[in-house]
Amino acid sequence: MTLQRIIVHVIYDLARHAGHADIMREQLDGAVGWEQADTNIPEGYDWSAYRARLTELANRSG
Questions:
Q1: Which residues does 40 contact at the CB level (< 8 Å), separation at least 6?
Q2: Per the domain annotation, does 24 fall within a domain?
Q3: Residue from 6, 41, 43 nearest 26 by CA
Q4: Structural domain includes residue 44
Q5: What are the angstrom distances between the C-alpha of 22 and each of 12, 25, 42, 48, 54?
Q6: 9 in a domain, yes or no?
Q7: For residue 26, what are the domain limits?
Q8: Does residue 43 sit in helix, strand or coil?
Q9: DSSP state of 58
């Protein structure tokens, strides 16, 4: 075990758990994106069609 492997593992775990925490925060407060005032999510995009397309692709793949 080298210091490099330890640092890479810690960074990977931090990124993964930060993503999980962000998902939980979005479910709790309903805000999505970077900040509540500036979501960085495009407005007017057909998210339901996008989600349906992704679901269809996932179902087709197995």
A1: 33, 34
A2: yes
A3: 41
A4: no
A5: 15, 5, 18, 21, 21
A6: yes
A7: 1-33
A8: coil
A9: H
19-48 burial by CB neighbour count: b if 16+ within 10 A, else e? eeeeeeeeeeeeeeeeeeeeeeeeeeeeee
Please tell me the total number of residues recorded for the chain in this structure.
62
Instruction: Give 34-60 pLDDT, tens digit per residue.
Output: 666 766 677 788 888 988 999 999 999
**How many whole angstroms separate alpha carbon 44 and alpha carbon 41?**
10
Residue 54 lies in a domain: no
Total domains, the chain: 1
Please name the amino acid found at residue 50: Y
Q: Is the overall model pTM greater than 0.70, yes or no? A: no
Per-residue confidence band for 5, with pLDDT thresholds at 50, 70 and 90: very high
Over 80: is that where the pLDDT of 6 sits?
yes
